[in-house]
Amino acid sequence: MNAVELFLLGRTLMKIGEAAMPEPPGGGRHGGSVRSVLIVASDVAAHPDSAVGEIATRTGLPQSQVSTAVARLKEAGAVVTAPDPADRRRMLVRQAAEVSARVAQVRAGTVEDPLTAALGDAATEHLQEVADALEVLARHLPPQAMARLQG
Fold first, then answer.
1. Is the entire prediction scored with pTM above 0.85?
2. Handedness of CA 122, 123, 128, 132 (dihedral sign)
């Protein structure tokens, strides 16, 4: 596998993951992509009590996308915000202490249906093999591996 093939595989896997995410009831009030919401949620988990600008700097997302993602996460009960004691104009973002019903719903989702759709006619014979390969990749390349690449 070369770098281009790996990149394209990563995009395919992201699309399968996005298809596996259940939409919020009523579609939610805030726009933004699932991808940016997950990137922001991951950054907030790794860096609690961060301002939106700090999250934008670390993730490379535009500040407007981070703000939208934080609004979606807040609506879902995944994060809470509080004024920065050092500068009350800034809001700091951290994970919510309790797992909300929406977060539990997203975490409980499975990838079987979108994976089956992506495999098409080959799904019956390859679904288990691909699912097992994804488990191996997830075990060896957890989200924390990203930090090793960036730093």
1. no
2. positive
In whole angstroms, how large is the CA radius of gyration of the chain? 17
Residue 54 is which amino acid? Answer: E
Distance, first Cα to last Cα, the chain: 24
pLDDT single digits (tens) 43-74: 999 999 999 999 999 999 999 999 999 999 99
Taken in order 100, 101, 106, 110, the sign of the CA dihedral is positive
Task: Of 48, 46, 87, 81, give the one whose Cα is nearest residue 67.
Answer: 81
Residue showing tokens 């409980």: 108
Strand partners, 95: 79
> How far out from the chain centre does Cα 119 lie?
23
